């Protein structure tokens, strides 16, 4: 087969399936097989850890032996992640002399996955001095990883090395202060080298450095806030965290919290009341949700109704109907994710619920959070924060000709 392909001008890569297990069982036969492929014209022999169980030190030893016995022959490795060693096995293979690594973006593949190229490539480029794709292209790594996730319809792993959203996130106040003074103290590579970015996470562990960093991102300079302002924000943050709120993924709600704590919050509207009805007519008919919202906008009363596939969708529709003519910018907002977490499951149906909503206007993405024993109220709170954040953040968010003011 190899000879036939070579005769027709093809470059041949010979994948030696089950090679590492075969070598451990009968090294002489495994090496003879490789020599046969090379003698027939194979350009490269790839040693496969097909069941994913070989350990890194074994890969190094075996690849080193193959390279010594087949001088001048290009050797590659093909590793699986069944033992959690796909990346380590691949790097040890390169260290032992392999010149090709086979794997998959984001580690996708059968069973536990293939060796993760998204981790292997930057390790080779940035830590082992191997040229793979070049520095300019390495900066596209996170974008490419997200694109692949999107193509296969999988949620990105936020903790993925190098490319995950949490890979360069810092929470504890001391860590934030340290990374601002010396990034290498908490970041093993510059995040921008792989197209990622540093994120300062707001949580109960936050200190003054976290708050000042986020205020700067919001356009508030250190000269514009006092120590008392920072303490006030921290106190409100810790109070909310104690009630069950989490702001790690709720940047929109955090900014609104800051505005309220610093007395800079000017609401765009006030809620009078809302009501949600869920109705089912007949066993074979879908549920219908209807929401009624009463708001005050610039002294005008708005009473609107919305229908949706669920109560939150209906509330969203009713809120848009009430605000749309005053603030057309909210029509650009789409809810992209909705997550619910039960905070005290032992309370059963009376448990406190945390709702996280992710929104996008096509340019920005933001998260908002709500907490309540009533899941509808928690959802409404997160929904309100989402709309308010959009109106605060969007420079074009101005009242229409209705005369409404901020």
Which helices and strands appear, and what pairs or packs with what?
Elements lengths: L1 H6 L5 E4 L2 H7 L1 H13 L4 E6 L6 H14 L4 E6 L6 H10 L4 E3 L14 H11 L7 H4 L2 H11 L17 E2 L2 H9 L17 E2 L7 H10 L9 H16 L8 H11 L8 E10 L8 E10 L2 E9 L2 H13 L10 E9 L10 E8 L4 E8 L2 H19 L13
Helix pairs in contact: 2-3, 4-5, 11-12, 12-14, 13-14
Give a brief description:
With 406 residues, this protein is an alpha/beta fold. The chain is built from 14 helices and 12 strands.
How would you describe this structure in keywords?
elongated, 19% strand, 406 residues, alpha/beta, three-stranded antiparallel β-sheet, Double Stranded RNA Binding Domain, TIM Barrel
Task: Characterize the structure shown.
- With 406 residues, the protein is α/β, with parallel strands linked by helices.
- The chain has helices at 2-7, 19-25, 27-39, 56-69, 86-95, 117-127, 135-138, 141-151, 173-181, 208-217, 227-242, 251-261, 311-323, 375-393; strands at residues 13-16, 44-49, 74-79, 100-102, 169-170, 199-200, 270-279, 288-297, 300-308, 334-342, 353-360, 365-372.
- The protein starts with a helix and ends in a 13-residue tail after the last helix.
